[in-house]
Amino acid sequence: MLPYNMRLALLSFKRTPGLTALMVGALGIGIAACVVTMTLYHAMSGDPIWWKSGRLYAVTMDSWDPNKPFDPARPQLPPPQLTYRDALHLADSGIPLRHVIMHLDRSVLTGGPGQKRPEPVRTRITSADFFAMFDVPFLYGGGWRPAADAAAEPVVVLSKQENETLFGGANSVGRMIRVNDVEFRVVGVLDDWFPHPKFYDLTGDSFAAPEDTFIPFGWTEARGKPPSGGDHDCWRLESTNTFKDYLDADCIWIQMWVELPDARARERMQTFIDTYWAEQRKAGRFERPRNNQLINETQWLVDQQVVGTDDRILVGLAFAFLAVCLINTVGLLLAKFLNGAALTGVRRALGASRRQIFLQHMVETGMLAGAGALLGLILAALGLWGLRTLYAVEAEFGANGYQDLARFDRASIVIAMTLAIIAAFAAGLYPAWRVGRVPPAVYLKSQ
Amino acid sequence: MSLNIRPILSSLLRNRTGALLVSLQIALALAILVNATYIVKQRVDSINRPTGIDDANMFAIDSTGFTSRYDHVSSVRDDLNYLRSLNGVIAAAPTNAIPLSGSGSSGPLYKSPDRKNSDAQFALMYEMDEQGLQTLGTHLIAGRNFRKDEILTPMTTDNQSRPIPQVIVTESLARLFAGNASAVGKVIYDPFGRPSTIIGVIPDMAGPFMNVPYRHLLFVVPQQPLIFGFHYLVRTQPGRRDEIMRIAAEHLATSNPDRVIKSVRSVALYKKEVFLTERITAICLVIVTVLLLAIAALGIFGLATFNVSTRTKQIGTRRAVGARKRDIIQHFLVENGLITSAGVVVGCALALAVGYGLSRQYQLPRLDLYYLVGGVLALWLIGQLAAWQPARRASTVSPSVATRTA
Hints:
The structure holds 2 protein chains of 2 kinds. Chain A is α+β, with helices and mostly antiparallel strands. Chain A is 50% helix and 13% strand. Chain A has 16 helices and 10 strands. In chain A, helix 13 runs antiparallel to helix 15 (410-436). Chain A is elongated. The two termini of chain A are 28 Å apart. By secondary structure, chain B is of the alpha+beta class. Chain B has 11 helices and 11 strands. Chain B has helices spanning 5-14, 16-48, 72-85, 132-136, 171-178, 241-255, 267-274, 276-310, 312-320, 325-362, 369-395, and strands at residues 58-65, 89-95, 105-109, 121-128, 142-143, 166-170, 187-189, 195-202, 218-222, 231-236, 259-266. In chain B, helix 8 (276-310) packs parallel to helix 11 (369-395) and helix 10 (325-362) packs antiparallel against helix 11 (369-395). The longest helix of chain B is centred in the C-terminal third of the chain and has 38 residues, at 325-362. Chain B is elongated and about 105 Å long. Chain B starts with a helix and ends in an 11-residue tail after the last helix. Classes of the chains: A alpha+beta, B alpha+beta. At the A-B interface, helix 2, strand 2, helix 11 and helix 13 of A face helix 2, strand 11, helix 7 and helix 8 of B.
């Protein structure tokens, strides 16, 4: 029955080519708009470490101004970063399976073989567990032992890209380079790693590339001067006459994550933080109400507003647009089916059941929707290409994930197919049902 | 001339599904059109808001010393001498922040040395030298510029507590401290209680941040910026920016082995980047809105064409009993007008509801009613235009059609 219905549909398309093109075009454009915005939205709202996000927690304490919250629009949220001294203390708890304290800095690399000019890079100064905790893949070598953090050992892990630049992609483990004019030994080279969003540090651009170099946390102090780059927020100004004053200040600039395997570990960690908070409060700090939160990674992405307002508005707009296209198609289909009611009348008179008439017209609508989805996919690919072109401005500011987001992927195809099925039913159900209700006699009479 | 709405209405009501669908489509289209246009307007406004600086003819250089031999003061002196000597350069200055770059520093200022929290006024800070104002492309509206001998050396841990005697402020900031009186000569205080005298006032201008509520409140202090976050800002004669940018980048990259030039970029590029989301949203909204109107128009056109073709016989009959071509055209246009009007009424309610929802959910300003009026007129016009051609075709139906069977 299906091939026959499809043949009937093709005949029907041939009778009204203009109308058919109009309907396919409307469905195609509507589907394309949804595929483009949904592809972006899906990519932005993705969880880059979903396989272990249930165990990863951002550590936060409300160390902010007694008079006003960090984010007045959302006073329930503690600030996203910790002060240096609080982070150092919390990192010593021994409770989590893994923990990491870290921040962003900039460095200049020299001394690579064949390197003509100094290379300015972004550096993550982090404690040792970073790589194991976030499942960072290595091409060569590995990270460093925790002891290297305390001792500020001159060891460095390079990104794959940076290893290409400095060593032409060769295994550089054991080779020496100069970081800010200090001799460092390469201990590891990362493989391709580009989490979207950059969940472990959302203080800057949410879709920026990971850093080019990674060095032990001890270097925060060993460098002897404030980091350049990264987000450094203070709620009050303190006299900072020495670098030590700077480290002890109430400013927040350290990100901290812990891996807690179960609820018990989570409780213990929470108690540890709250106990520390209470001690410090007695000493005159933490004047705000207690608000120390272990924020799960998935909640973290929501709290830090990775997906922007405009992205949501565009998704809403695309669906409203698709709705208009669908209503348009319903109207046209209805007119078309009823216009062909004379033919339907003949079929009914020859013994076709209402069900068969309904199916015939649903098949016709399904084919229209299928063609619309195909057209939609082509238009969506074009649209995403256009977006990548627009985002090219961003790319001039260093490796950037936005262009990666606007990429046609399996998700786009799944979205388009789902929409096509929805469209076929939404547009076809009523007209197909309606045309089956036409009494055959009316049409047979006038012939 | 009577419009004969009664018979048109009754024929519409007998065949209401099609008309209902077109009305619904128009209602949705109106809601989207009005809100999308309003959002686009806000985005375009923020992109086109005058910056008050010569952003088209400026570029920024990021220079960082990284060896122990690096001498900041002499390096800055050499670089500035070089940049200022270039043919086509109007002015060059060191700065702690690049305009429109999204990176810089801010802090509170106070009216009195006791620094009450209640009168803290946050503002953005530029550290620049005597060529700073000229480099930005702004001018004094009161008072005077910094003198060369007033420029302080970079702040270090040793000289942190020294006062900064002079400061130049923007008009809005001046008004906050001095009201309508002249702000020149007025003393303001930093968070440590150190006094600075306002020596000059400049017009409001765009600073490093565009997304803070105090983005137009700026003050300039006569001080060389620190090694970290240090930039040069260069202003060129119109049309010569890119050429000079290339020459300067090449020279500075090798002129001093103890520092590295991280980036040389036009301020226009920073501006483009800072407004990227706004631009992309605006472009997407415009494309979708145009397509939406096109689809709505085509839908009305298609349905009207169809109606005409199914009603050939009735039209012929009407012509045969004396209706003029004009009457037929009028019939279809009035019919379309009725359908559009119904859609527009529902659409207005929908547009207001969506506008209200958006303003609640995303803190957008409330919908301006002018946009609603404009949208209603636009859809009315589109409806009539889309129905025009089918109506014309209907009027050409010959009266003899009525006499034929089938």
